[in-house]
Amino acid sequence: MPTPTPLTVRPGALRTRAAVTALLALALLGTLSPAHATADPLQRDADAVRDSGVTGVFVRVDSPRGVRTARSGVGDLRTGAPVPPGEYIRIGSTTKTYVATVLLQLVGEGRLSLEDSVDRWLPGVVRGSGNDGRRVSVRQLLQHTSGLPDYIADVVPDMSAAGYLKHRSTTYSSRQRVAFAMTHPPVFAPGTRWEYSNTNYILAGMVIEAVTGRSWDREVEARILRPLRLTRTYAPGDDPRLPRPHARNYQQFEAAETGSGSSSASAPGSFTDTTLAYLPFDGDADGSLISTAADTDRFFSALLGGRLLAPAQLAEMRRTVAVPDTPGEAPGSRYGLGLAWTPLSCGDGYWGHSGSGFGFLAWPATTGDGRLAVTVAAHSRPADEKTATRQIDAITALVDHTLCGAEPQPRPRPRGSDGPGDRT
To answer: Which among 44, 277, 325, 422 has most CB atoms closer than 10 A?
Structure first.
């Protein structure tokens, strides 16, 4: 699945100034030293994620054998309290899978086609700087092959900890977000390449509303959350708070470049509490849902198990294109329609969609039949790519060990009509 950048904002890394002192963070992180030996492989792997520099980790595994969980690190650097069980988490771009599922349900109902142009449903919205909604299909939005530029950099005007604190409550409408993107030229001609762009899913949410007359989040609630009884998953709108219980999220920022003698520069290794959402990119169809690891596992198990989509639409979702390799990402990863596929060391692979933002990372992974699901929640993000890669490696190792060790996995099958090797 697409790997988040160190600070999870595309494109480029954020350059930031921390608001929490390094002494406090480093003193508390001293309690996160390598764990005592444990016979539980899941706990050992959770500890390895913590030892990569993550402040707090929660893991849940759902399988026919039952539920397993593991926690490591702390949920609050100030108090040292542990990560709470059953915690609420931000799932960021994992939201995209819910949005894609709704659109594919509408396709199955004959209310739109994946080959419809964006302009058919949103006339004139995708225009400017060479962008043309008449040339971009709904499929290309869901698949990130549209070539449309990402709006994210436009809503982070000050890439610093002070900027996070100053701008986190700013709100933008979906149309405003798309308008930001339309000031930039296309990244490539539609359908010729793959590149992740959050703008695609802002538009997907707008298409849902154009087709149904209701907002994307109301459709997600009616079509997914209520039928599956996912009572702890919801779109918070402009409310930046996480409900309790939750761990606190922390962003590790690079030290700001200031003049000598300035007291505002932060020392490397310090953290800013980013538990409150940064609404400019945490508040729309591209990444706003709040959930729990339990609800996330249930959603992906139901989706891959065929409970949300008819076979034809699920097959479309699972038809993938190659994702360019990036540091920390498993080679050979592929992307379908709001659903990513990642190879496993024991053969075949898993499905999911990572989600991230300031100070958090959600990493769900589910076997192709939906019978085995794991979600990893990490509660801090680093400033530098090297550390980010190390942390992603620890998380993907945990997922690989869990999915390969819990149940035998089939060997890769030949490319077929719904296999991960298919291109659209």
So the answer is: 277
Side-chain half-sphere exposure of 161, counting CA atoms within 13 A: 27
Residues 6+ apart with CB under 8 A from 380: 53, 54, 55, 56, 249, 250, 251, 252, 271, 359, 360
Q: pLDDT tier at 37 (50, 70, 90 boundaries)? A: low
319 has a pLDDT exceeding 70: yes
- Look up the pTM and report it: 0.88
Is 382 in contact with 270 (CB distance < 8 Å)? Answer: no
Asked if residues 270 and 20 have their Cβ atoms less than 8 Å apart, the reply is: yes
pLDDT over threshold 60, residue 414: no
DSSP-assigned beta bridge partners for residue 379 = none
Give me the helices (H) in 85-215, please.
95-108, 118-121, 138-143, 161-167, 174-181, 199-212
pLDDT value at 182 more than 50: yes
The CA-to-CA distance between both ends of the chain, in Å, stands at: 18
Give the pLDDT mean for 81-94: 97
- Contact present, 370 and 303 (Cβ < 8 Å): yes
In this structure, the chain runs to a length of 424
Does the pLDDT of residue 406 top 80, yes or no? no
Q: Which residues are catalytic?
A: 93
Burial of 263 (0-12, 13-18, 19+ CB in 10 A): exposed
The amino acid at residue 215 is S
Q: Which single residue is written with the structure tokens 């709108």?
A: 237
Backbone φ, ψ for residue 356 (5° rounding): -155, 165
